[in-house]
Design brief:
By secondary structure, the protein is an alpha/beta fold. The chain folds into 4 domains: 136 residues, Rossmann fold; 170 residues, P-loop containing nucleotide triphosphate hydrolases (Rossmann fold, 3-Layer(aba) Sandwich); 69 residues, Orthogonal Bundle (Helicase, Ruva Protein, domain 3); 46 residues. Helix content is 48%, strand content 15%. It has 18 helices and 18 strands. A 5-stranded parallel sheet has the order 2-1-3-4-5, sandwiched between helices. A 5-stranded parallel sheet has the order 9-12-15-8-16. Helix 6 crosses helix 7 and helix 17 crosses helix 18.
Length: 451
C-alpha cells in the first residue's frame, strides 16, 4: 500500500529523528532541516501534511523564518495541511500560525499518539480537498449535462441515451424515485431536440384535483360545465409543436388514461364540451416515481397506455445507486449556495463528509440540496459540520455492514445493466453469476429493469 507523504521540518536532529521513528509506520516521511531544503522537497513531491517547527535557521529562537515558510507553503496551491510544533514558552507564535492558516499546533515534546490522530485528520482533509479541486475542474468541463452533475457510469449511460432520444419525436418514459431529477432530465431532452425553440409545458398530474385535470389537459368550451365561464385552452393544445411533460403520470385517473391514449394514437384532442377535433403535433415525455409495470398488474394503469408511453424507457438512479456522485454533488451545491451569501467556506469537515457519504439520502438530490443550503445559512465556521446539515456520522445516516453490502450489490448490478443496455444475459456474464441468480437479486433489491 502506498503511504501518504508527510514532511517534517525540524532543525533539531534528535527531535526530527524521534518524530520520523514514531510516524514511519503510517507515513512516507521526509525530513528538512531548514526552509530552503523544505521548499525543494515540496516542489519535488508535495506532501499531504507538514510538521513545522517555527524556530528555524537562521534564528532558531525566533519564529519569523517559520511563519514566513508557513505562508509560502499555504500559498503554493498544493492544499498541504501544516501542523506547527513549538515550545511551551512560544504558544503565542503557534496561535498566530493557526490564525494565518495552520491546521493545528502541538507543543514540545510532542505526544506521538496525539500527533497521529491529528495527522490522520489533516491528511484525510488534504486528500479530500485535492479530490474536490480536481472534480471542480471536471464539473466545469466534462461532467455537466444540461445542468445535471454526474460521474457515475450509470448516469453517463443515461445521458448518452437522452442525447440520442432527443433527436427523435418518440414518447419517452422516465422512471425513478422522487428527488432524483427526472423533470430536469425531461427538460434536457426538450432543449436538445429540434423543438427547443417551441413550448415546453409541464403538467403535474398528481397535484391537480381529479375533477380539474381533464380540463387542464384538454381544455374546455364556455358553458361546458358549471363554472366554465370562458373557453380554456388545455396544456396539450398549448404545447403545439413543442413538448409536454406529464409529471407523475402514474397518478392519472383511468378515465383520463383512455383519453390520453387516444391523443397519443391519433394526434388529436377535443375540448370538453367541444365539437371540433383538433390536430396536434406534440412530443410527450412521461415522468413517474411509480413502477408502472406493477401498476399495470394491479389494474391501476392501462397496459396499452403503458406500452404507448414506454417507447424509450429511461431510469434515473437514486443517489444510493450512484454513490460516486455524492461528494461531487455535495461540493457543487456548497459552492453554488455559498455564492449567494458570499463565499466563506473551505469545504466540509471530515465528520460531515463521512456523514454525507454514509447517509442513504431517501430524498435523493433534492434532499441534499436542501440540507446543504440549510448548512450554508447556519454554519459559522470555515468548514460545514454535521450539525449544520443535521446529519450525524454513525447515527441515522450510518449504515450496517449488511446495508453496505446491499448497497454495493445494487450499485454493481445497476452499472452492469446500464453497460449492457439492460440485457440480463450479458449483465449476468459480466457479474460472473447465472441469469436466475441475477433475476433473484433484481427482485430482492427491487431494481427497475428497463425493457
Amino acid at each position: 500500500m502506498i503511504k501518504d507523504r508527510v514532511l517534517i521540518i525540524e532543525d533539531e536532529a534528535s527531535m526530527a529523528k524521534q518524530l520520523k521513528w514514531g510516524l514511519a509506520d503510517m507515513y512516507d516521511i521526509s525530513v528538512a532541516k531548514d526552509a530552503s531544503e523544505a521548499k525543494s522537497l515540496i516542489s519535488l513531491a508535495p506532501p499531504s501534511a507538514v510538521l513545522l517547527d517555527l524556530g528555524l535557521p537562521p534564528d532558531p529562537d525566533g519564529a519569523e523564518e517559520g511563519l514566513r515558510l508557513l505562508g509560502e507553503i499555504l500559498a503554493n496551491g498544493y492544499g498541504i495541511k501544516v501542523i506547527v510544533i513549538t515550545g511551551n514558552t512560544h504558544k503565542e507564535n503557534a496561535v498566530k500560525a493557526v490564525s494565518l492558516g495552520a491546521y493545528d499546533f502541538h507543543t514540545k515534546p510532542a505526544n506521538i499518539d496525539e500527533l497521529k490522530i491529528v495527522l490522520k485528520r489533516a491528511v484525510y482533509l488534504s486528500k479530500l480537498e485535492k479530490q474536490v479541486s480536481e472534480l471542480r475542474s471536471l464539473i466545469k468541463d466534462e461532467i455537466q449535462f444540461e445542468g445535471m452533475i454526474a460521474t457515475a457510469k450509470s448516469m453517463m449511460t443515461l445521458f448518452d441515451k437522452a442525447k440520442k432520444v432527443a433527436r427523435t419525436d418518440y414518447p419517452v418514459l422516465i422512471q425513478g424515485e422522487s428527488g432524483t431529477g427526472k423533470e430536469r432530465l425531461a427538460s434536457a431532452i426538450h432543449h436538445l431536440s429540434d423543438r427547443s425553440d417551441k413550448p415546453l409545458v409541464i403538467v403535474d398530474c398528481g397535484a391537480i384535483p381529479e375533477n380539474l385535470l381533464e380540463s387542464e389537459l384538454f381544455g374546455h368550451e364556455k358553458g361546458s360545465f358549471t363554472g366554465a365561464h370562458a373557453r380554456q385552452i388545455g396544456k396539450l393544445e398549448r404545447s403545439q409543436s413543442g413538448t409536454v411533460v406529464l409529471d407523475e403520470i402514474g397518478e392519472l385517473p383511468l378515465q383520463l388514461q383512455v383519453k390520453l391514449l387516444r391523443f397519443l394514437q391519433e394526434g388529436t384532442i377535443e375540448r370538453i364540451g367541444g365539437k371540433d377535433t383538433l390536430h396536434t403535433d406534440v412530443r410527450v415525455i412521461a415522468v413517474t416515481n411509480v413502477d408502472l409495470k406493477e401498476a399495470v398488474k394491479e389494474g391501476r394503469f392501462r397496459q396499452d397506455l403503458y406500452y404507448r408511453l414506454n417507447v424509450v424507457p429511461l431510469y434515473m438512479p437514486s443517489l444510493r445507486e450512484r454513490r460516486d456522485d455524492i461528494p461531487v454533488l455535495a461540493k457543487y451545491f456548497l459552492d453554488t449556495y455559498s455564492q449567494e451569501i458570499g463565499p466563506r467556506f473551505k469545504g466540509f469537515s471530515p465528520e460531515a463528509m463521512d456523514a454525507i457519504m454514509n447517509y442513504d439520502w431517501p430524498g435523493n438530490v433534492r434532499e441534499m440540496q436542501n440540507r446543504i443550503r440549510r448548512g450554508v445559512v447556519m454554519a459559522d465556521k470555515e468548514y460545514i459540520d454535521t450539525h449544520d446539515i443535521e446529519l450525524e456520522a454513525g447515527k441515522p445516516g450510518g449504515i450496517t455492514l449488511k446495508q453496505a453490502r446491499d448497497q454495493a450489490e445494487i450499485s454493481a448490478i445497476q452499472e452492469a445493466l446500464a453497460r449492457h443496455d439492460f440485457n440480463i444475459t450479458r449483465a449476468a456474464h459480466d457479474l460472473d453469476i447465472s441469469r436466475p441468480t441475477l433475476h433473484d437479486l433484481i427482485r430482492k433489491h427491487g431494481i427497475v429493469v428497463q425493457r
